[in-house]
Description:
Layout: H1 4-14, E1 18-21, E2 29-32, H2 33-38, E3 39-47, E4 51-58, E5 64-71, H3 75-84, E6 95-100, E7 104-110, E8 115-116, H4 117-124, H5 129-148, E9 151-152, E10 161-163, E11 172-174, E12 181-182, H6 202-205
Antiparallel strand pairs: 1-2, 3-4, 4-5, 5-7, 6-7, 8-10, 9-12, 10-11
Amino acid sequence: LQSGNQAECQKEAASHRTAECSIKDRPALRLDSRLVCKYEVLAVIGKGSFSQVLRVQHRLTHKYYAVKLVSSDCGTVNNELSILSRVQHPFVIRLEEVFKSSSRLFIVMEMASGGEMYDRVVAKGRYSEAEARQALRMLLNGLAYLHSIRVTHRDLKPENLLYSDTTPDARLLITDFGLAYQAETSQEKMTETCGTPEYIAPEISI
């Protein structure tokens, strides 16, 4: 049997209404009611010019996830979702589900609480040979999988590699597929110049 609150929550979710969610020391967020019914919003963990990232907890399984809030008309995000919906690998960030309103996307993804590779390298000063070998093994494993399904990332850099948690043996996850390309055939060539200037391959900019 459902409690009164659960029944009301599902009723609101079915109507796709917007729910207001308050987080301590933060202005109230306007969120999709379907998201709020399924997940408890715990904190804002990231904020950019065009997006926000929330830390949430599933109300039934109690597992933690990250939710990215972006405009629904953002072309790179739609490209990213198209690719992530087709990939599944232990070293590639996992897409859980997407809630779409008239103007925003609420993208629920695997929680990578270990932070960026860039920050970990800076904090440590340098990687030991064993640490570098372990990181490269995971990265190349993930890239080999992506290339096997004809996906090219096109913006690989330490900032787009996240660790699953803070332990030394955490999984390294390839993220941010906004500039990625899904080829139709193995013979297809890419002609567009894209990527982060500081990391782009020299031959790409020639």
